[in-house]
Amino acid sequence: SVKKKKYLYILGGAGIEKKFISLNKYLNILKFIKKKYKKYKIIYLPHPKEVSLNLYKYSFLEVVKPNTTVEIYLINKKLKPSLIIGFNSTSFFTIKKIFGKKIKLVNYNFINYPKKYSDFFNKINVNIKKKLKITSHNFN
Predict the structure, then answer these.
(1) Which of 70, 72, 78, 105 places its Cα 20 to 30 Å from the Cα of 89?
(2) Residue 54: other Cβ atoms inside 10 A
(3) Which residues 6+ apart lie within 8 Å of 56 measured at CB?
(4) What percentage of residues in the chain have a pLDDT greater than 90?
């Protein structure tokens, strides 16, 4: 029997561009996710604000740049991912509304945001956990 490959999409974050996470730290998190989910085919969808210059450094992942929002991209995909990982992504709210329990969502929450971002992202993280009931892993 042919084992169907499971797809995992990572919704990229603009943390490097906003200067609250170093490229090295971000690469380590992506590598950790890749190791943790070895059985999945992993596709990285960059954040619209992510600088293309950094994307080649993620060559250990398949990088796909949808020329539309992630939600529309997912609706148009024949093969839906079984898992999506994001970094306090606001698109979780619409993805959950559209797909319900069909796609498992997992959040990674950075706990050392600079002051000017911390309230905003902490609020998103709380809502992701409470309203969407999505598992959220903290990292620093």
Answers:
(1) 78
(2) 15
(3) none
(4) 61
